[in-house]
Amino acid sequence: MSRHILRSFLLLELGRSIAASCGKYYTHIVDIKHNSGQNYLIVDGGMHHIVYFGQYMAMRQPSISAVGKNEINKEKTWNVCGSLCSMNDILAKQIYLPDVEVGDLLCFENTGAYCMTEGISLFLTREIPAIWFLKDNGEFMLVRKPLETAPFNTPSF
Q1: What is the pLDDT of residues 65-116, one digit of tens each?
Q2: Could you give the CA distance from residue 109 to residue 13 in angstroms, rounded to a whole number?
Q3: Which residues are paired to 29 by β-bridges?
Q4: Alpha carbon distances (Å) from 30 to 6, 22, 63, 82, 155
Q5: pLDDT digits over 31-51, tens only?
Q6: Per the CATH hierarchy, to which homologous superfamily does domain 22-119 belong?
Q7: Sequence-distant (≥ 6) Cβ neighbours of residue 127 within 8 angstroms
């Protein structure tokens, strides 16, 4: 009589949990709007560049900072919208930021290693953003320049 040993085990794929804190996404504020008591920031990126857990129409608030601004004085709430001509291009709703202005740089923290590759990069022939690495000495190294997507979206016969 043979004995069968059944072993149960739990397999965890830790890739996303390890990579979650790896990525940062930077985008510039290109316009500021105020409408019906709401404050809006229009950025030069959008949902075609960044996909992060919980983004679904900005239902969850990502960690966003205004680069070079005093993060202590976060008194005003903002809705951060992308540059696409889509009502779905909302990156954050009612997020507290310090006083910001056109030209300021926003940093989306903890976007993970996949935020760019899971996005719809070729949507509306928008430019794919540059990729930079932060070296151990604190310097940035350009890994890939911005990439025009028109050649990928243009039929060639």
Answers
A1: 898 887 777 778 999 998 887 787 888 889 899 889 999 999 888 777 666 6
A2: 22
A3: 43
A4: 61, 26, 20, 10, 31
A5: 999 999 999 999 988 877 776
A6: Lyase, Ornithine Decarboxylase; Chain A, domain 1 (2.40.37.10)
A7: 146, 147, 148, 149
